[in-house]
Automatic annotation (TrEMBL):
It comes from the Eukaryota. The keyword Signal applies. Residues 1-27 form the signal peptide. Residues 54-450 form the Amidase domain. This is Probable amidase At4g34880. PANTHER family: AMIDASE, AMIDASE C869.01. The keyword Signal applies. Keywords: Signal.
């Protein structure tokens, strides 16, 4: 199905990428596919690549792949101008007129819930916010612009973070339709940061930003064979981002390598007076940044807790076998494994209705969304109640009636002061303390290690960091990763562990080819 949005997106991309044919660089000089931040900067330094050429390449990729993958909602009409400015500043710096940052000239795609004070929308995938204007860039966007990054566009997402409806498939939103996994058409792209992960996996952008309340970075990164890094809550500011839960929400990078994720993380962390959580978390930011922990020997001396049940149960025998091979890699690289650990009340923790998480998130979402909408100008809606009414009044919009909005309606009936909500928060805190925290402390672990993405809920409960790295592909070609979780402020250890594992295994295999029948292949 083709919408007015799809046609306008294709037209805008076509207009922006007219210069692509005259700016390509031969494969012998620079490889666009799977390009890393470091390889891009090397090509910049050797005058074999410009930021404009790089942006042109990604615009061409979007024009070619997005009609099927549906992972980009908007291309930034100023992207090429930003690339040209980056090239101009690089030329000036080469003349001794200043140093440039690690993200200078690097294209970044933003999840559609991260506010930008420019010509693009920030809509959480919903038609209800088209045309609304934010008062200023989100803090993380300010940091990206200061670092010289090119804001390439807005990525699709599960509409309203999948809170629109419990029955809504992950990776779907009214504006973009159903996002697709680039490795297999029937594969779940997961969410809610689906577009951010799909675009990186399919080489439609260098890196992207996602947001996570519970699994929303880790799961799409895992399912699309990319790296996802969800930092400790407060390490990155949520100011200017459509918020679900102040106790759980975190902004983090999605990339093809651990190194790229760390480069982005270094650029976006920092204290922000508009987000009080950043005050406490600022103490976790090391002098010299996080890049110093990209160590190939990072597994040496680490103590890793292996939690198999129930996470290995979700995967087939091929994934479980590969997981065991990776455990041998950990040992061979100097790590001590504490195997077959179990988390108390794990079945309750993983059930959002039993744990109280759903009740808490719905109430916090309503409260925070109403506050966010009240700060917008030119917004068609000013409250969650008006969002619900907008959806009911506009069933003719593409796919609007395809899925109901029972989740939004349930959220509208809540109040953050309700006894059920207060009890839910206390219960979640207790579950976290008696489960994950006790596991980590009693076993003196540097990280918890699990197969796949389902364990992301565990660190999410306490606002703890998690990092997933591609770990293999099942018999059908569906990707899976290994998730590393740690206590608050343990980013340095997680980076050392994940980077060392990545360098020892190099398991990511990019989608190889695309056809109109949507048959992706992957390297064997």
């Amino acid at each position: 199905m083709t919408s007015l949005f799809s046609l306008s997106l294709l037209l805008s991309v076509a207009l922006l990428s007219l210069s692509f044919l005259t700016t390509t660089i031969s494969a012998s000089q620079f490889t666009f596919h799977e390009a890393t931040i470091e390889s891009i900067h090397l090509a910049f330094a050797q005058s074999r690549l410009t930021s404009r050429q790089l942006v042109d390449f990604y615009l061409d990729q979007i024009q070619t792949l997005n009609p099927s993958l549906r992972c980009v909602l908007e291309v930034n009409p100023d992207a090429l101008d930003q690339a040209d400015e980056a090239d101009r500043l690089r030329a000036a710096a080469a003349g001794g007129n200043g140093a440039l940052g690690d993200l200078h000239g690097i294209p970044v795609l933003l999840k559609d819930s991260i506010g930008t004070d420019d010509k693009m929308n920030t809509s959480a995938g919903s038609y209800a916010l088209l045309g609304a204007r934010v008062a200023r860039d989100a803090f993380v966007v300010e940091r990206l612009r200061s670092a010289g990054a090119v804001i390439l566009g807005k990525a699709s997402m599960s509409e309203w973070y999948s809170l629109r409806s419990w029955e809504m498939p992950r990776g779907w939103c009214a504006r973009g339709g159903q996002g697709l996994n680039p490795y297999m058409k029937s594969g779940n792209p997961c969410g809610s940061s689906s577009g951010s992960a799909i675009a990186v996996a399919a080489n439609m952008v260098t890196v992207s930003l996602g947001t996570e309340t519970d699994s929303s970075i880790i799961c799409p990164a895992d399912y699309n064979s990319v790296v996802g890094f969800k930092p400790t809550v407060g390490l990155t500011s949520r100011a200017g981002v459509i918020l679900v839960s102040p106790r759980q929400d975190s902004i983090g990078p999605i990339s093809r390598t651990v190194s790229d994720a760390v480069h982005v993380l270094d650029a976006i962390v920092g204290f922000d007076p508009r987000d009080e959580a950043t005050g406490e978390a600022a103490e976790f930011i090391p002098m010299g940044g996080f890049k110093q922990f990209l160590r190939e020997d990072g597994l040496n001396g680490k103590r890793l807790g292996i939690v198999r049940h129930p996470f290995s149960d979700f995967k087939g025998s091929t994934a479980a076998s590969i997981f065991d091979q990776h455990l041998a890699t950990f040992r061979n690289n100097g790590a001590t494994l504490v195997d077959n650990l179990e988390i108390k009340n794990i079945d309750i923790i993983l059930n959002p209705f039993q744990s109280g998480e759903m009740a808490l998130l719905r109430a916090q979402f309503k409260h925070n969304l109403n506050e966010y909408l009240g700060g917008l100008s030119n917004s068609p809606v000013k409250s969650l109640a008006e969002v619900i009414a907008f959806n009911s009044d506009n069933p003719d919009l593409e796919s609007m009636e395809e899925y109901n909005q029972d989740g939004l309606i349930a959220a509208e009936k809540t109040n953050i002061l309700d006894e059920e909500v207060v009890k839910a928060e206390h219960m979640m805190k207790k579950l976290s303390e008696e489960g994950f925290e006790k596991l980590m402390k009693e076993n003196k672990l540097d990280a918890m290690v699990t197969l796949g993405a389902n364990a992301a809920t565990i660190p999410a409960f306490g606002g703890y960091p998690a990092l997933t790295v591609p770990a293999g592909y099942d018999d059908n070609g569906m990707p899976f990763g290994i998730c590393f979780g740690g206590l608050k402020g343990s980013e340095a250890k997680l980076i050392e562990i994940a980077y060392s594992f990545e360098q020892a295994t190099r398991m990511r295999k990019p989608p190889l080819s695309f056809s109109t029948e949507f048959h992706y292949q992957y390297y064997q």
